[in-house]
Amino acid sequence: MKVSDAVAKYLAHEGVKVIFGYQGGAITHMIDSFDRAGIAYIQNYNEQGSGLAADAYARISADGLGVAIATNGPGATNLVTAIANAYCDSVPVLFLTGQVHTFAMKKNPLIRQESFQEIDILSITKSITKYAVTVMEKERVVPELAKAIAIAKDGRKGPVHVDIPVDVQGMQIPEELLEECIRHPYCKSEQDDNAQSAKAKEKTLKENVKKAHDMLAKAQRPLIIAGGGIRLDGAAEAFRRMVHSQKIPVVASMMGLDALSHDDPYFVGFIGSYGNRYANIAIQNADVILILGSRLDMRQTGKRKDLFAVDAELIHVDIDENELGHFVKEDINIACMVSQFLQAWNLLLEQSEEKQPAIDMAARQTWINRIRTWEQMYPDDEELLVRPECRKCNPNVILKHLGTLLPAHSIVCSDVGQNQLWVAQSVRVSGAQFRMLNSGGLGTMGYSLPAAIGAYYADPEATVVACMGDGGLQMNIQELQLVGSRQLPIAIVVMNNHALGLIRDTHEKYYDKRYVGSVWGFSLPDLKYLCRAYGLQYVKPESLEKLTEAVENVTSPKLIELEFTENTYVYPELGGNDAIDHQMPYRD
Hints:
Elements: H1 3-13, E1 18-21, H2 28-36, E2 40-43, H3 47-60, E3 66-70, H4 74-78, H5 80-88, E4 93-99, H6 121-125, E5 131-134, H7 141-153, E6 160-165, H8 166-169, H9 175-183, H10 195-218, E7 222-226, H11 229-232, H12 236-246, E8 250-252, E9 267-270, H13 277-285, E10 288-292, H14 298-301, E11 313-318, E12 332-335, H15 338-351, H16 361-377, H17 383-386, H18 395-405, E13 410-414, H19 418-426, E14 435-437, H20 448-458, E15 463-469, H21 470-475, H22 480-485, E16 490-496, H23 501-510, H24 527-534, E17 537-539, H25 544-551, E18 558-563
Parallel strand pairs: 1-2, 1-3, 3-4, 4-6, 5-6, 7-8, 7-10, 8-9, 10-11, 11-12, 13-14, 13-15, 15-16, 16-18, 17-18
């Protein structure tokens, strides 16, 4: 059989149903094979869009693997931002690239380029993948593919890159090679711990979980920080059960905002530099904090890490032991998957013969009531404290209303910039099915539109909303062609403030209002005519009632323009050396 047919059949065996990509001379073998194997090939209009769509697909789909393909040279280099995005957010994506013929590849490293569109792509991607390989031997293609997929899904998940020369793709191999890989999947046994080491780790985990449980049981003001690792590990349901059984309030990082339903009695809000003020106050007043699947970066703690949760004992659970104790000093570090921690927690409660410490439920309820009081005192539409005249056009007010319109089975894809922060602060969705997708670590402008495409193909029954600014829209504006030509039922919400808002704010504060690039030299095409060109319905609601009409019953692609003045701001925000509960505008 042809190597490309073996690749397609192996991917189909692994449960791959959709592949995103852009055609090119070095991948025609593989895309033809995908089509004949029954795998849906979705063609984007730029390889970065393909990679970001595959990233979102991996986060939503049941099989938990995204696949993107690109040709050699510029096709492969266009994937780099998407590869880095998946790497920073620990998303398992298989990136396939074609390469020039083996006989045409440069043999002398001092030669810059031997063939047209030749580039040493592995030297570029090795630092942003868990595994990257160019496969020169036809017999090694499927085994390397199997190895890459296993590595992508193992431990702290992440992207992998398999580069295959075009002549190797067209070669013939015995069918037995494919059957052997299917019968004996890749096993990294040579890297596995021995049985004795595994038992020692299990014992340490049990001991640490017991310490964590006792610490939380005795706490008067316990808190959980929910991170992206909960969803990445498929542990959301177990997490919810744990929260309800222990009655512990939950704050969330941006990546953990969909770990708990927003109408859950224990959900508090979004934390960090631009977090909900009341959620940050809860952190600073807690006495024990359990951090699940979050690395606690500076956007969450603020620059003054020594002022973060100073009165609390910290229990940090993360799959990557290198992240433990990296940003802040913790009292208990537990290096494991969130699901492993929750499983050990449940076993402790079920099997322990010792009497567990009694939880003071009255104190816990008093703590929850205090948090709710702070929530009433410090609402998320804090811009109105500074500019009360903006109530009708306040982004937080509008996005809070948008959240009430979304059904439980919704996927909200945020972009990067002010729009992302407004969504995190104010969009609240009821029910356990909803998802919120963000470019967290890399902060990729242009993420939300291709992410919405990937989310739709992963879950076509969901209501999919892509939220973006006027800047982010134009980063991957070409993907409107895919949305329009296939009439994908996606609501595209464009928050148009005629500026790059966060940078404009920086220019206003620190550059004497010299708005070079943020306002001066920045523009947006007329969205009404853009929609006409791409085959989208265009709506510009002038009231919350009109927004309601626009968002309900999205059965075909619709672009909803929300227009603001250029001087929009994200409040509250953290100053340089303040603790996270001391955000601007300053409050009592």
